[in-house]
């Protein structure tokens, strides 16, 4: 799969889009003076220092001192990672040692080598990052899977990535075994994270701890290599999944250079390690403590909430149990957490849960929210909860290897509703639907260039050509941008939904719904939801016999319940349908493409009328 990336760097500037000629000619005709008053600009938030292109991510984080990186005080005494439930902590040297031991163990036991794919199927775990770093020490590729996946969903990811080993949490072992069997991956290539319940499975499946012990007690069987100059831009580190503009989730090939670039972009934007800023005004300082409640299989959690925080010399408090809001409140106070990176459902709970008033969060210094835009009113309420914190929103995508914008460093409390300011090194433009450049503060699609850009969709050149055009990434998001490079996200132009921060492909749900015996045709769209960001709604055309039955309201309700159950039986919980509406036909254009915007508008009218959800 990755030979094309090893042989040559993919030059997205050389790619063209079949129906792009009018857009290209319009771009080429814009004069400099015209661009000056149109919505295209380079980020004004700083100048990037050199970004190393001959390092893997693990080498950059564990072995390298970049000019923008703070030096930890008492580095060997300050924990890098703490598990919230037990308080168990790992420092730099222990993390480095465990990662080497696991790399050696994986190589000895499974012959994992360069460009092999290891899939990690687990909630957050104290050794999750150790597993990532071990995989990268071997030159292999890591792909993280959502632990709420069903067997069918996991099979799809195993097959799409050609994974050769699964690293699995014991709580989801039955799903992993079922998926491995269907994908024809031998069960003896399943490794378990260690938990209190793990000893009952010892002897059946190797554990991470046993592989670390084996690797540390055995002469090194692999030789970690330094990448050639420029190779970091093409050597794949992660296969994370997103839906792009259309269709089922696709593996995105993210090279090592991309997260390294994004970490440095964030550091420069936030003026990390800038001694011209008084200590009390610095956003990210060695010794600060950040909650890592976001899942590490998601790029937001992996890059921004974990690797960037470690780069800043801070401690990560890792939430490893299933998210419980009251437990989360206790964790913030127990560990004197100073930094919070959240998603909208968590923000809503901070704003509305009655227990919040019982806590003093005066020690919290920084709060940001990503994955979906928050209203000005919600941001104002959030700032009441955290009276001493710098607070604002962030915006990014998996394709851009996380953050594109975050609130400006000269704005302590951003209530504008903006997703933040472009990070250093990013050039952005806003395009109208006809491909011309929009004016500043005029709606259009956000299109960006960034050094943290991924290589494209692995094994899917057509989808890559549609989304990555001549070095630009088409986000599929409708935005407005002002002359300060602040981006206001208005709507999603692309089909993919964001439910609780997770990508949900309408085509995936439609394929599942069409498997129901009563369904003739269907289209899935999203409606806004204060808690989840978006929720999926299915418009369904019933088969003739079912349509006759549905004329009886009670029978129609039972059919809806049956369709909803069919989806919930086959998909993760966050993909469950919020509403089902029967229609006579699905609107389509002459070529057969679903007219989702028509049904999305209809769904929102139903929402505004208060039609009950399932």
From TrEMBL:
Instruction: Report domain AMP-dependent synthetase/ligase positions.
Output: 93-457
Pfam families per record: AMP-binding, AMP-binding_C
Q: Which domain of life is it from?
A: Eukaryota
- Stretches the record annotates as Disordered: 1-26
- Spans through the membrane: none
Which molecular function GO terms apply here? Answer: CoA-ligase activity
Residue ranges of domain AMP-binding enzyme C-terminal in the record: 508-593
**Coiled-coil stretches:** none
Q: What is this protein called?
A: Phenylacetyl-CoA ligase
């Amino acid at each position: 799969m990755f030979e094309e990336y090893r042989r040559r760097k993919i030059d997205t500037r050389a790619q063209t889009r079949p129906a792009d000629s009018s857009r290209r000619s319009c771009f080429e005709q814009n004069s400099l003076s015209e661009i000056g008053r149109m919505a295209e600009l380079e980020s004004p938030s700083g100048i990037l220092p050199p970004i190393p292109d001959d390092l893997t991510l693990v080498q950059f984080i564990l072995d390298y001192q970049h000019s923008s990186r703070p030096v930890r005080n008492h580095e060997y005494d300050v924990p890098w990672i703490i598990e919230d439930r037990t308080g168990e902590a790992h420092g730099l040297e222990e993390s480095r040692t465990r990662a080497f031991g696991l790399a050696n163990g994986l190589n000895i036991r499974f012959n994992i080598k360069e460009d092999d794919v290891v899939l990690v199927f687990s909630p957050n775990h104290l050794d999750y990052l150790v597993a990532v770093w071990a995989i990268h020490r071997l030159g292999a590729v890591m792909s993280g899977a959502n632990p709420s996946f069903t067997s069918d969903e996991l099979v799809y990811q195993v097959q799409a990535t050609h994974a050769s080993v699964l690293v699995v949490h014991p709580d989801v072992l039955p799903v992993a075994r079922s998926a491995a069997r269907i994908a024809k991956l031998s069960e003896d290539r399943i490794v378990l994270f260690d938990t209190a319940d793990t000893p009952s499975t010892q002897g059946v499946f190797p554990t991470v701890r046993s592989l670390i012990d084996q690797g540390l007690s055995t002469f090194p069987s692999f030789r970690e290599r330094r990448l050639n100059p420029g190779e970091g831009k093409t050597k794949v580190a992660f296969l994370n999944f997103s839906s792009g503009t259309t269709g089922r989730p696709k593996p995105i090939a993210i090279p090592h250079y991309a997260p390294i670039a994004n970490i440095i972009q964030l550091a420069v934007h936030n003026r990390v390690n800038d001694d011209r800023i008084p200590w009390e005004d610095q956003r990210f300082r060695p010794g600060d403590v950040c909650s890592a409640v976001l899942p590490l299989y998601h790029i937001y959690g992996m890059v921004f909430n974990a690797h960037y925080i470690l780069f800043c010399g801070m401690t990560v408090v890792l939430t490893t149990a299933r998210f419980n809001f009251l437990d989360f409140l206790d964790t913030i106070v127990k560990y004197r957490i100073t930094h919070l990176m959240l998603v909208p459902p968590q923000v809503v709970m901070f704003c509305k849960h009655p227990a919040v008033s019982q806590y003093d969060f005066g020690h919290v210094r920084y709060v940001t929210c990503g994955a979906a835009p928050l209203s000005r009113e919600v941001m104002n309420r959030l700032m009441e909860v955290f009276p001493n914190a710098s607070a604002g929103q962030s915006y990014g995508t998996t394709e851009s290897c996380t953050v594109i914008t975050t609130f400006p460093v000269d704005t302590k409390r951003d209530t504008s509703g903006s997703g933040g300011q472009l990070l250093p090194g990013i050039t952005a433009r806003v395009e109208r639907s006809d491909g011309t450049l929009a004016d500043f503060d005029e709606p259009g699609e956000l299109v960006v260039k960034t050094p943290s850009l991924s290589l494209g969709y692995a094994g899917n050149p057509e989808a890559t050509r549609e989304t990555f055009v001549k070095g630009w990434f088409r986000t599929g998001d409708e935005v407005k941008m002002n002359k300060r490079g602040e981006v206001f996200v208005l709507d999603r132009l692309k089909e993919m939904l964001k439910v609780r921060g997770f990508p949900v492909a309408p085509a995936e749900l439609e394929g599942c719904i069409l498997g129901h015996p009563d369904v003739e045709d269907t289209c899935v769209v999203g409606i806004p939801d204060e808690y989840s960001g978006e929720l999926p709604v299915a418009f369904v055309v019933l088969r003739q016999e079912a349509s006759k039955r549905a004329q009886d309201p009670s029978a129609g309700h039972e059919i809806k319940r049956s369709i909803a159950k069919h989806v919930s039986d086959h998909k993760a919980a966050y993909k469950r349908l919020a509403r089902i509406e029967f229609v006579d036909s699905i609107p389509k254009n002459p070529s057969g493409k679903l007219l989702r915007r028509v049904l999305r508008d209809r769904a929102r009218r139903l929402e505004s009328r208060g039609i009950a959800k399932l």
